[in-house]
Amino acid sequence: MIEGELLEKYGAVKKSFGKSEIIFEEGNMPAHYYQVISGEIKMSNYNDEGREFIQGIFYKGQSFGEPPLFLNQKYPANSIAVEDSEIFLLPKLNFMKLLEENPAISIKIIENLAQRLYYKSVMAAEISTHEPEHRVLKLIDHGIAYFNFKKDTNGYLINFTRQQIGDLTGLRVETVIRTIKALEKKGELRIINRKVYR
């Protein structure tokens, strides 16, 4: 997203987070721009029954948590390290100055936010109207396009766990497992050494 050298020029610091460590909590006021250097971050919240719903998953080079930063609103979800991760933290005022002084970066940020909004709109429609097979394939195809999943001789390796697919599509894990098997039988997916390929 934003080059590390430019972030550091404006005062960004690198911070490490261990697996399952909270980066920020739902209800907190935003104070920083966050960008992943390495690892994997998820933003999620829980419903009244304690079921997790993942709002998004973020990888190297991706930023997260910007909407509340721009709106000066509380975070609507928790941000947690899925694995050991390193992140750039840039104070809000410095981030705003960076955007004012670098219009091309501002356009990149707008495009990124538009992409996420588009994805949320598409997935909201999928969750409310489509069958599990359609939901899972839509999520996987979005992941291939947006998360740059690696391709090898078996196809695109889908880096989501079955649990993450469930949490991103509103499906139970058992349903995800059955759906992936059904999609494999139809030739839409391949399962090799328990890994899913498209």
TrEMBL record:
Key words of the record: DNA-binding, Transcription, Transcription regulation
Domain Cyclic nucleotide-binding: 1-116
Keyword Lyase (UniProt): no
Residue stretches spanning the membrane: none
Domain HTH crp-type, first and last residues per copy: 130-198
Gene Ontology, cellular component aspect: cytosol
Molecular function, one GO term: DNA binding
Pfam families, per the entry: cNMP_binding, HTH_Crp_2
Stated name of the protein: Cyclic nucleotide-binding protein
